[in-house]
Write a structure and sequence with these properties.
The complex is a heterotrimer of chains A (615), B (235) and C (294). Chain A is 53% helix and 10% strand. Chain A has 615 residues and is an alpha/beta fold. Chain A folds into two domains: 311 residues, ABC transporter involved in vitamin B12 uptake, BtuC, CATH 1.10.3470; 188 residues, P-loop containing nucleotide triphosphate hydrolases (Rossmann fold), CATH 3.40.50.300. By secondary structure, chain B is an alpha/beta fold. Chain B has one domain: P-loop containing nucleotide triphosphate hydrolases (Rossmann fold), CATH 3.40.50.300. Chain B contains ten helices and ten strands. Chain B has a six-stranded mixed beta sheet, with helices on both faces. Chain B has a four-stranded antiparallel beta sheet with strand order 2-1-4-5, with helices on one face. With 294 residues, chain C is mainly alpha-helical. Chain C has a domain of 202 residues. Classes of the chains: A alpha/beta (615), B alpha/beta (235), C mainly alpha (294). At the A-C interface, α6, α12 and α15 of A face α4, α9 and α11 of C.
């Protein structure tokens, strides 16, 4: 109801009209209104900055004001001391912010959870202290007066003396462009990769998304936005003092983004507008500001987890509005995703060769001298009791652990110890015991993540909606539709994954694997929790993989499921391979029976169960 | 007697235990068998109170304990040794026993109780001040068993006690289990993935498959039943 | 040389207060794996409440005791409102922001209803002019009192944890809450008690530091909390010995940097240490690497 009525707010044409309207209206409203609107624009940039880093990439930041300070003082000083014109000083402020974010990410990217919160708190406080103490440059506690500003008619751009209205127009234009770039980025594979990192760095690595590099991107982008905001801010107010960059500034940024709605595109805009106006309109608000912010932060995650945007606005889309490319429309490339399977010269060359793999954790041997081979189009069942090392083996192959000894060779190339996202990029895709999907994404958006390793467009092309990038996305969308159909999820393609039953979530993960165009697939207990019908679908998908000459490793306990599917089975026990061969032989193997049933040494005692026998 | 009626255990949207009925007579050893993921651990956690029952009731001697928290059930006389040999690694053997004692003892003094423990497992007596994390797997299992028994519980749940242990140690532990039931009349519920092992000491057994009870009966009968392997290996 | 020794000693004393703050933070970490990002405000409440009660004519010992009790009580609220509902979400962002908000709320409350100006904190033990001769160096009696009290509290805590049933219960819950519950330990009650103790310790630390600095204002405590973080992380999250070593090392570093360069530089050094430790060796000196199953 309300959401449908407000849907018009997200319409691009409406937004465009709004921008024009604001620009025109600025000529007619009072000077103080123009000033408030100017602050709203700055806060929009600030809120989006936090949104990108915390809401989307999931990296908490409690010291964001530090980047604001860098941009503000940077632009002000470059203009004052070097006479840099406004456009250049703003660009410089943005770049300085970006550089600071990039540098910080080296330390911050290695740290997680509340440690990261502490670190960013420390960063914010160091920035504040530096501003306060570096009196020679920043003016210290006394502040930096005389920053060229429209209010005093001291701001000059290419000979034109910029007044408040002109400055507002400039900020309006730049902010609109920034929001456009952000929207393009979020609906691109790079924006979706941020969300993947947020949900699970390990799962992101399994589809080829590098955790460190992606986090670096997020920090750089976020800090750049903050630097730009800082530059705008400096010239708007004409005077800079350290108190403007204290903790409460970082808190304000957080509140705007959280209340507006983290992880959405429109939320931070709402939040910025709200929290710029409230202090103006409500004296009460200013008096009780800390208490109100405190209360908001305490309650918002519980009461309003998706913010106002989640409540009243239509859902943010993470895919561009494009028609998937059918084969007729293709520019000669067809709907198949690139990287066709090369013709094999030798029928019997193994795809994967694992030799003498060994790894220990805290003195416990998890894998001991494990050797196995896998040919293309073969399905291998990996079975064994709990703790026998099945998941560990898959973790080593997929690059999560580095083995203590032994080698993993894939397509003739030694990949032992290669990082998980690099292994994924080579075409080895794996799943986990629980489906690691982005809960707020639709099925289609989650499936598209699988294609991450196949994209050729770079971040810049993505941000400006470059035609070739759009064409590539159309091809990927077509591919996604195909695998979604194969997984039987076509009716649910736009459903939000967190609302779906477990079986459908599992199938979504499977579709994601398919879209990645793998050469080898490692599935960790894919049958767990699936119904009979879903098991049939799973079996069909696995047979399809087999037909495509893709090798499959299945960790499973469900023997009946494996029986008609696998070409070979490997049984692990206490980290060692105790059987390798076909399933029929497995049932007859004395060693396997011993591991599962106990065998002769634990033969049944007479009725009543009076103690065991000596070994 | 412990009665489980209509038990359902859910984790999110997955049903781990679906409408199970089980009865455990006082002073007996019951084996719970089944493949991984069959619901054995979830069943035991529901009995001891670690996970809530989505539906169904659990009764001890007629008294409904379904709504009680785990620590209350522990004080009523239910002891549960979780799978994976979980104990307090950074505490010594003595401290592990004390922790199990502190909130449940009924008047006797700790020295008497711990002396009894060391009688049953003399090898622990020499290691009473060793941090539990430094003990061997078998010794750790002995500590866990001792801690579970130190206040003479009425019911003892053991989740895969033999996992990862050498056969000789396993024999010792199972001998102790039988002795406990025989001497103290403790009702024991035992889950094992090595079926023959559990059946060698149990009086009766239940077989679980995908959260449901599919077989039940006297342990001796199930021990020679060839179709049991079907539940495990599907072959 | 005398100057350096005096600074070093002041650093040890101040560091012992940081250690106490770190220990208070660790208490909730043990039982819930969370930290109160608003702990600074509890330090402040301890100090401000003492001043307020003294001003109302309450005798000194009772005033301090009540203030500390208030701080403990506030933590019960924090656990119920800012921590428990957010533990379900699985990541830390919720409770970090929520406890930060709790602290901000308290800060705003005190500023609004008590005034945001700095207030003088009266001398309760000795005066700032009392000096004691230790090995030929003139040492502030107040500093010495802080050091003695902090160390005494930490020793008491260590004994409590090692020797008493409830202390063992805390360690048990910290190690494995499931096994603890199955052993009959009322986990929920242990958690709440750990929060009360955490708040009380913060209150004590607040009073002690206010005693040394002589003034208190609503922002008081925030910097201290961050320094407490540094001490806790540097020494190793959850380790009392680590907190002591970390706190004292931090205090000495801060005082020496402050004495030879500038006081603000002292703060910057502390934050820089924090970032370095977190980036290089997050488990600190005595902490354990947490291994998580993939």
């Amino acid at each position: 109801m309300l959401r449908d009525k407000l849907a018009v707010l997200s319409d691009a044409r409406f937004i465009f009209a709004l921008i024009i309207a604001l620009g025109v209206a600025a000529e007619f409203v009072s000077g103080s209104t123009v000033q408030i609107w100017s602050f709203v624009l700055i806060n929009v940039l600030i809120a989006q900055s936090i949104n990108v880093l915390t809401g989307i990439a999931g990296q908490i930041s409690l010291g964001h004001a530090g980047f604001l300070a860098i941009g503000a003082y940077g632009s002000a000083l470059l203009m004052k001391s070097l006479g840099l014109p406004l456009p250049l000083s703003l660009v410089a402020a943005t770049l300085m912010g970006a550089a600071a974010g990039w540098i910080l990410s080296f330390a911050a990217g290695r740290v997680r959870e509340f440690y990261l919160a502490m670190m960013t708190l420390g960063f914010g406080m160091i920035s504040y202290e530096v501003v306060r103490e570096w009196t020679g440059v920043t003016g210290g506690v006394a502040g930096l007066p005389g920053v060229p500003s429209p209010a005093l008619r001291t701001l000059n751009v290419f000979g034109v003396n910029l007044g408040e209205i002109g400055y507002f127009h400039l900020m309006l234009g730049v902010t609109a462009i920034v929001l456009w770039l952000l929207r393009n980025f979020i609906t691109s594979p790079y924006g979706r990769a941020f969300f993947a990192i947020h949900v699970s760095e390990v799962a992101a690595g399994s589809i080829g998304i590098p955790r460190a590099g992606t986090k670096r991107e997020a920090y750089t982008l976020s800090a750049a936005l903050m630097g730009l905001a800082g530059g705008f801010y400096a010239h708007l107010v004409g005077y800079l003092g350290p108190e403007s960059f204290h903790l409460h500034r970082s808190v304000e940024a957080l509140v705007m983004a959280v209340v507006g709605g983290l992880g959405t595109l429109s939320g931070p805009v709402l939040g910025a507008a709200l929290f710029t106006y409230l202090p103006e309109q409500l004296q009460f608000f200013t008096d009780y500001q800390f208490m109100v912010y405190g209360l908001i932060l305490m309650l918002s995650f519980v009461l309003l987890p998706r913010g106002l945007a989640g409540l009243v606005l239509p859902r943010t889309r993470f895919i561009k509005r494009l028609t998937p490319l059918r084969s007729a429309d293709a520019d000669g490339r067809g709907t198949e995703a690139p990287a066709a399977i090369p013709a094999r010269d030798d029928e019997t060359t193994p795809l994967l060769r694992v030799s003498a793999l060994a790894i220990s954790f805290l003195g416990l041997r998890a894998l001991d001298d494990v050797t196995l081979e896998l040919k293309p189009g073969h399905i291998l069942g990996l079975v064994g009791p709990n703790g026998s090392g099945k998941s560990t083996l898959v973790n080593v192959i997929s690059g999560i652990y580095r083995p203590d000894a032994g080698r993993v060779v894939f397509e003739g190339r030694d990949i032992t110890g290669l990082a998980d996202y690099r292994v994924a990029r080579l075409g080895i895709i794996r799943t986990f015991q629980d489906p690691r999907l982005v809960p707020g994404f639709s099925v289609r958006e989650n499936v598209l993540l699988g294609a991450h390793r196949l994209y050729r467009q770079n971040q810049l092309a993505a941000a400006v909606d470059w035609p070739s990038a759009l064409r590539e996305e159309k091809r990927m969308l077509a591919g996604a539709d195909k695998v979604i159909a194969m997984a039987g999820l076509s009716a649910l393609a736009d459903s939000i994954v967190r609302d779906l039953p477990y079986g459908d979530q599992r199938m979504t993960e499977l579709a994601r694997v398919l879209l990645a165009d793998p050469r080898m697939v490692l599935l960790d207990e894919p049958t767990a929790g699936l119904s009979e019908g879903e098991l049939k679908k799973l079996a069909l998908v696995l047979q399809h993989l087999k037909q495509q000459d893709i090798a499959v490793v299945l960790i499973e306990h469900h023997m009946e499921f494996l029986r008609d599917l696998v070409d070979e089975v490997v049984v692990l026990n206490s980290g060692r391979v105790i059987y390798r061969g076909d399933m029929a032989g497995m049932y007859r193997s004395a060693q396997v029976i011993e591991a599962y049933l106990g065998g002769d040494s634990h033969a049944a005692a007479p009725a009543g169960g009076q103690g065991g026998r000596d070994a | 007697m412990l009665e489980v009626t209509g038990l359902v255990v859910r984790y999110g949207s997955i049903e781990a235990v679906r409408d199970c009925d089980l009865t455990f007579d006082a002073g007996t050893i019951t084996a719970i068998l089944g493949a991984n993921g069959a619901g054995k651990s979830s069943l035991m956690k529901a009995i001891s109170g670690l996970v809530p029952a989505a539906a169904g009731t659990i009764r001890i001697d007629g008294e409904d304990i379904t709504a009680l928290h785990a620590h209350r059930r522990a004080r009523l006389g239910i002891s549960h040794a979780l799978e994976g040999r979980r104990l307090f690694h950074s505490m010594s053997v003595d401290e592990n026993l004390r922790v199990a004692w502190d909130f449940r003892h009924r008047g006797n003094d700790f020295k008497t109780a711990s002396d009894r423990v060391f009688e049953r497992f003399p090898m622990l007596a020499t290691r009473r001040n060793t941090p539990a994390g430094l003990l061997s797997g078998g010794q750790q299992q002995m500590v866990i068993l001792s801690a579970a028994l130190i206040h003479e519980p009425r019911y003892l749940l053991l989740d895969e006690p033999s996992l990862g242990l050498a056969p000789v140690i396993v024999q010792q532990i199972f001998a102790a289990i039988s002795a406990v039931c025989r001497d103290s009349g403790t009702t024991i519920i035992l889950s094992e993935h090595v079926a023959a092992l559990a059946l060698s000491v149990a009086h009766q057994a239940y077989v679980l498959k995908q959260g449901k009870v599919v077989r039940k009966g006297a342990a001796s009968a199930l021990a020679v039943d060839a179709s049991l392997s079907a539940a495990y290996l599907g072959g | 040389m005398e100057f350096t020794l005096q600074l070093a000693f002041a650093g040890v004393c101040v560091g012992s207060a940081y250690a106490l703050i770190a220990m208070g933070l660790s208490l909730t970490f043990w039982t819930t794996r969370t930290l109160n990002f608003g702990q600074g405000s509890l330090l402040m409440v301890g100090a401000v409440a003492t001043v307020a009660l003294l001003g109302a004519g309450v005798p000194a010992v009772a005033a301090v005791a009540l203030a500390i009790a208030l701080a403990g009580a506030l933590m019960v609220v924090a656990e119920r409102v800012a921590i428990r509902p957010l533990l379900k979400s699985g990541d830390s962002m919720g409770w970090v922001v929520s406890t930060l908000g709790f602290g901000l709320f308290l800060q705003g409350f005190v500023a609004k209803f008590y005034g945001s100006q700095a207030i003088a904190f009266p001398s309760l033990i000795f005066t700032s002019l009392d000096f004691v001769d230790v090995f030929g160096i003139q040492v502030s009696a107040q500093y010495l009192a802080v050091l003695t009290l902090s160390v005494a509290l930490m020793v008491a805590m260590e004994i409590f944890l090692l020797r008493s049933a409830w202390g063992r219960a805390v360690r048990a819950v910290s190690h494995d809450a499931d096994v603890a519950a199955l052993a009959g330990i009322p986990v929920r009650r242990v958690v709440v008690l750990s929060f009360v103790a955490s708040g009380a310790l913060a209150g004590v630390a607040g009073v002690m530091v206010a005693q040394i600095t002589g003034t208190v204002d609503p922002q008081f405590g925030f910097n201290l909390m961050v320094l407490g973080f540094v001490a806790a992380v540097f020494g190793g999250m959850g380790s009392i010995v680590g907190a002591l070593v970390g706190g004292i090392a931090l205090g000495v570093a801060e005082k020496l940097a402050g004495g030879f360069i500038s006081t603000a530089f002292g703060d910057a050094v502390a934050f820089a240490i924090l970032m370095a430790v977190l980036a290089i060796r997050p488990q600190g000196l005595f902490g354990r690497r947490e291994m998580t199953k993939v």
